[in-house]
Design goal:
The chain is α+β, with helices and mostly antiparallel strands and 227 residues long. Helices cover 33% and strands 31% of the residues. It has seven helices and nine strands; from the N terminus they run E-H-H-E-E-H-H-E-E-E-H-E-E-H-H-E.
Amino acid sequence: MDSEPNGMNSLYLLAIRGTLSKDSIEDSRTLHNATAGAPSSVAAAQSLGDLSHMVYVPVESAKSGEFLILDIWNSMEGLNQFFANPQVQQQAGQIFSARDPVVWYAADNFSTYHIPSPYGKNDRFVSFARGLVQSRDTAITKNNAIVTSQLNKIRRAGNLSHEAYFKMMPPGTPESTEFLAVDAWMNASQMKQHFQDPEFLQSINDFFSDPPTTSMWQHPPGDWVEW
């Protein structure tokens, strides 16, 4: 992977989406906590720049076997070093029967936000919109216009944050136009309603050059090691 495209203080999102190797969520939880969540694994990841590790299953069908890990790093060098460890790769192979790991970096000049949650609103859900954009400059204009025009409405629907990323590409290759929008929510039903809103659907279809892949995620049941 490339290194530090936006400077030493950049944040990188590692999204690993795949299919769990175990048949039950509880067996998967036990395996995850004994491998990726083991104290030695957590300490190694954090020492190399892993700031956050969160796990999710789909909102619509938690029994589908799909699983999502989201890690936020502040060092590409540390991320590469961590996943170059054969033991780490072996652990990932134990958790997933198939997986698609992608590293994304925070997009410059895109309007993003993080709004506090009211007291007692502790549930968290995540939505993804992933696809190709015509150009980065066009995407900036469209993203910022959507945020400006829809922020009040989307906040009333329980939205907490909006983050914008581009896919990390290998050194020496052109910049990617593959874009990922990640939004956090405090209400699943309102999140799903928003994804059916005609205004939102029109704006997202105008934003991407092809129909994007969208998905909604929630925390799986049980006590998972996260940080």
